[in-house]
Amino acid sequence: MTAVLxxxxxxxxxxxxxxxxxxxxxxxxxxxxxxxxxxLSNKVNAFLxxxxxxxxxxxxxxxSGIAKEYFLPEAxxxxxxxxxxxxxxxxxxxxxxxxxTHILLFIxxxxxxxxxxxxxxxxxxxxxxxxxxxxxxxxxxxxxxxSGWFVWSDITSDAPEDSVAVEIMGKQFNWQVRYGGKxxxxxxxxxxxxxxxxxxxxxxxxxxxxxxxxxxxxxVPKGKNVVLKIxxxxxxxxxxxxxxxxxxxxxxGMQTSFWFTPTKSTAEMRAELGDPEFNYELACTxxxxxxxxxxxxNVVVDEPADFEKWYAEQEAWAAKNKEYLSTLDLPNxxxxxLE
Length: 339
Fold this sequence. Notes:
Helix content is 43%, strand content 15%. The chain is of the alpha+beta class. Helix 2 runs antiparallel to helix 3.
């Protein structure tokens, strides 16, 4: 602690001396006692520009090596690879512009530092130069935007008819999911039917709802199209599955959707990362309240055969809650064998 205080004190002492020297220099200039318009400090400041350029780039490269540890692995979905490609193309363009502009920004003050032996050239305007540095960024940005628009249009297009449908509902503070059961059709829902038991507001007057099941984690098949039907029960939430490059808001009062094709099973991802505890996850990227941290659900990518087996083993929510359904006076319970 003493060493830290001594070092801090020394730095402050040097800074105070430098400030006093600077004040006396400015007083001398104001009194016209110093005939030189620029002294040693001008050369020192000019030299510091290229020095900080080198130090800055070294720091960026060093930090990038550390930050790489926190990068996401290769995307585990078809569209995710397109997004990653677009991201790195954008980073390449921005990185090139960053390097070039900062080299010029830091070298020019050194190269053109003040000298009493020369006078600055007055160059107020150049139409061709203005045209070039307006059109070039505009064309590059248009290319990036159009490329992104094609990727986004593909992602948000209608899901293929053979897609596995998963309904995702966000609420404070967890996720609930629902599958279509044996008929593959997810039944209707109605917010007015939400109660302490039927937390998703499933409308059991719709026969398609009677075989729907509500698991504790999401399962999807590898290599098959999956469509997420997303909604919110209360406030704005956001479905985020980072390894699949999925992000879509869950909006109260309306349904949004996102379809994708997973390309790596959970087992393959564990082997690739060397982490037997790895799990894909569904998280929320909206600050939806004090319990926001709890909004996490595991996502399991199965091989197609394993997914079909898991799907067939699930019991319908209605079959596990016959007593609750008996209080609703539903006409189709007998036909469904639930009475």
